[in-house]
Amino acid sequence: EPEVTQTPSHQVxxxxxxxxxxxxxxxNHLYFYWYRQILGQKVEFLVSFYNNEISExxxxxxxxxxxxxxxxxxxxxxxxSTKLEDSAMYFCASSGQDYGYTFGSGTRLTVx
Amino acid sequence: KQEVTQIPAALSVPEGENLVxxxxxxxxxxxxxxxxxxxxxxxxxxxxxxxxxxxEQTSGRLNASLDKSSGxxxxxxxxxxxxxxxxxxxxxxPWASGTYKYIFGTGTRLKVLA
Lengths: 112, 114
Prior knowledge:
The complex is a heterodimer of chains A (112) and B (114). Chain A is mostly beta strands and 112 residues long. Chain A is built from no helices and eleven strands. Chain A has strands at 5-7, 10-13, 19-24, 31-37, 43-50, 53-57, 65-68, 75-79, 88-95, 101-103, 107-111. In chain A, the strands form two sheets. In chain A, strands 2, 4, 5, 6, 9, 10 and 11 form a seven-stranded mixed beta sheet that branches. A four-stranded antiparallel beta sheet of chain A has the order 1-3-8-7, with no helix packed on it. Chain A starts with a strand and ends with a strand. Chain B has strands at 4-7, 10-14, 19-25, 30-38, 44-51, 56-59, 62-67, 72-77, 86-94, 103-104, 108-113. In chain B, strands 2, 4, 5, 9, 10 and 11 form a six-stranded mixed beta sheet that branches. Chain A binds chain B through residues 6, 31, 33, 41-45, 48, 50, 55-56, 58, 89, 91, 95, 98-106, 108, and chain B through 31-32, 34, 36, 41-46, 49, 51, 89, 91, 93, 98-107.
């Protein structure tokens, strides 16, 4: 069964550093997403991406965040200057025409 | 603003029991609803997707129903097994032009005892 692949599985970074989280969506999917889950809290929507541009973003997705699909297969989330409160599990997802999601296994980001 | 609530928050049952997990949402204008399973420290696995025009979906021992007008969905698990132990998340996609996001509930943490 096709999978969404995320790397790395765990990243530790110092406050103020830039991080890039990587995702390889399912190849024939058209819609791509990033979500995050702070420990013990709900899964929260960050951003959706379609046709090489952001189609929707949440209030969480401020100027510190950016997304890119640099080469037609990878989908990245960049956090420019990490804060302690950015520590969370970050999930990438993709969907096809039925809009049902397939999620990756996540990247646990720890900001110290 | 759409809110999704799941009850109970946690459930512990002996193996073999049939059980029902509940999900409610405040705005009935939804495009679809999806149930996910999340194992500790892991990603989300899609279990069932119900479009707004459907009343239920089945996959193996799982059956999900949708009553859009009352803002409710239930996930029925038949003959539960220890391997079913996980957190079950309900998520709704609002019916709004240009939105493809899901709004998640807080989940039901299920433990099936051998």
